Amino acid sequence: MARVPAGPFLSHLQHMFTDSYNSATSAMRAARARGFTLIELVITIAIVGVLVAVALPTYRDHMRKSRRAEAQAYLMAVAGRQQQFLIDSRAYAATLATINIPMPASVVAAYDVTLVVAGGPPPTFALTAAPKVGTDQVYERCGTLTVDQTGAKTASLSSCW
């Protein structure tokens, strides 16, 4: 018996059962490819949360150290200018305005800088940078930074300078 070639109608009948299955699974694949599942979203949020929990304290500590380094540089610049002022006028400058070194914005925002001068023989001065209350800088482990006329540098920890 000879086989009759399948025409368009018979071809359609042959694939009638398999076409609906294939079209349903391809539609599900297309729908799934367009978005994320809830589990994928929760896992992503958890990973981001862990990264933020680790990175944020490290970033804050780095910013505190950066502001401390700027304050130390400013104190050293003022101390150097004080020594030059002593040579020029035989006395230390009584105010920071007299020295005329602009304070960096980060130091102004994070520290209260004070200058205490004693005129008696020998003349002395002490520069102090104390972290401002209400700022993140109060959590800096070095605390108050001080420099005097001899170049002695003090802080809460000896490793801060």
Could you explain the architecture of this structure?
There is one protein chain. Helices cover 54% and strands 14% of the residues. With 161 residues, the protein is α+β, with helices and mostly antiparallel strands. It has a single domain, classed as Fructose-1,6-Bisphosphatase, Chain A, domain 1 (2-Layer Sandwich). Strands 1-2-3-4 form a four-stranded antiparallel sheet. The longest helix is centred in the middle third of the chain and has 52 residues. The model has no long low-confidence stretch (mean pLDDT 87).
Q: What are the salient characteristics of this protein?
A:
single chain, four-stranded antiparallel sheet, 161 residues, alpha+beta, Fructose-1,6-Bisphosphatase, Chain A, domain 1, rod-shaped
- Tell me, briefly, the overall form: rod-shaped
Q: Strand pairing plus helix content: what structural class?
A: alpha+beta
> Going across the major beta sheet, what is the strand order?
1-2-3-4
> Under the CATH scheme, which architecture would be assigned?
2-Layer Sandwich
State mean pLDDT (0 to 100 scale).
87
